[in-house]
Design goal:
4 helices
Length: 138
């Protein structure tokens, strides 16, 4: 690809849209996970109050399974986000300006003590999965 301004603009537009679509998809999937978990936990406690052991086990299994499925979905979305980051990084490398802002992706990876989205999601998937497994066994 040439470094013509219109080519760089097209590449930038594609890269940014790719990143935005998959970042939005990741958050929507996580929101869906939280909503479904809320319904399942409500069902679990309703079954528990009715002393319906089979329903408790089934709902616990569903929570556990859902954690695994959403973890795989999050892993795939993270891969797609990395593709977008690589494209944005390429566009930034081709821009002929001397600015620290060109290193925005590298700087964003230096998060210090703060958990990343992946670490936060993994923590919640793990906790919900353990709760689902306990519900399955209990």
């Amino acid at each position: 690809m040439s470094d013509q301004p219109e080519d760089l603009k097209l590449l930038k537009d594609i890269a940014v849209e790719w990143f935005k679509i998959h970042a939005d998809q990741r958050l929507k999937a996580f929101n869906f996970f939280i909503i479904i978990s809320g319904f399942l936990f409500t069902g679990y406690f309703a079954a528990l109050s009715q002393k319906n052991q089979q329903a408790c086990m089934f709902v616990g299994f569903l929570v556990f399974l859902m954690c695994i499925v959403f973890k795989f979905l999050d892993m795939r979305t993270a891969q797609l986000l990395k593709v977008g980051e690589a494209a944005v990084r390429e566009v930034l490398a081709r821009i002929d300006i001397a600015s620290e802002a060109k290193n925005i992706i590298d700087k964003s990876n230096d998060k210090g003590c703060v958990f990343s989205y992946r670490q936060s999601f993994n923590f919640l998937f793990f906790i919900f999965g353990v709760v689902g497994a306990v519900g399955l066994i209990y």
